[in-house]
Design a protein that fits this description.
single chain, 202 residues, alpha+beta, Rieske Iron-sulfur Protein, 2 domains, three-stranded antiparallel sheet
């Protein structure tokens, strides 16, 4: 029982709460109805500002690209369709020459003198599905690696699914004495193989 004059002992002090850790600078704090709401991304105003700037920069970039495109000439990097392949003397009789197969997809064939000694150019595309055949010197034929079509030295089809012979390209002798080939002008039928523009007599 407490007697008059006694001193009431003070209540123990409440334990101190640790101070909250500071938020990163990129975190925004908003006060809504007395409660704190933490937005970890962007405020609405910042988002709208960034969207407006993005639209503006995209519009300006598109306009600049159109202007620059106007000053850049249209250049085609496709290989030429008309080109020269040297002089007839560069090609041996009775040989299928493959030096232009990779660059222009053609073979140059010069007949032996007994067959006329002329020169013609075969386009290297199989008439079945368009693969590039290989010349097999030991078997004296062109052979398609895709589906087995076979063609003789002249380009005539004789085995496999190819429905017709290989095509021949237009050839001519240029003013400088070189053979000029036009791969865009091709002849499908064997009846055209002795025409002056498909069979160059040299």
């Amino acid at each position: 029982m407490t007697q008059p004059g006694d001193v009431t002992p003070a209540a123990p002090a409440a334990a101190a709460k640790p101070a909250p850790k500071p938020l990163p600078k990129s975190v925004h704090q908003e006060e809504v109805d007395g409660s704190k709401v933490w937005n970890l991304w962007f405020t609405r105003r910042e988002f709208l500002t960034l969207a407006a700037w993005g639209t503006f920069l995209a519009t300006v970039g598109g306009a600049l690209a159109s202007i620059l495109r106007y000053f850049i000439p249209n250049v085609s990097y496709d290989p030429p369709t008309v080109f020269k392949i040297g002089k007839p003397i560069d090609y041996a009789s009775g040989v299928v020459d493959e030096r232009w197969k990779k660059k222009h997809r053609i073979w140059v064939v010069r007949d032996a003198p007994a067959l006329g000694g002329g020169l013609y150019v075969i386009f290297g595309r199989c008439t079945h599905l368009g693969c590039t055949p290989n010349w097999l010197e030991g078997q004296n034929k062109f052979k398609c690696p895709c589906h087995g079509s076979g063609f003789r030295r002249t380009g005539m089809n004789f085995e496999g699914p190819a429905p017709r012979p290989l095509e021949r390209c237009k050839v001519a002798l240029a003013d400088d004495g070189q053979i000029q080939v036009d791969v865009n002008s091709r002849f499908r039928s064997p009846k055209d193989w002795k025409r002056p523009d498909t069979y160059l007599k040299v």
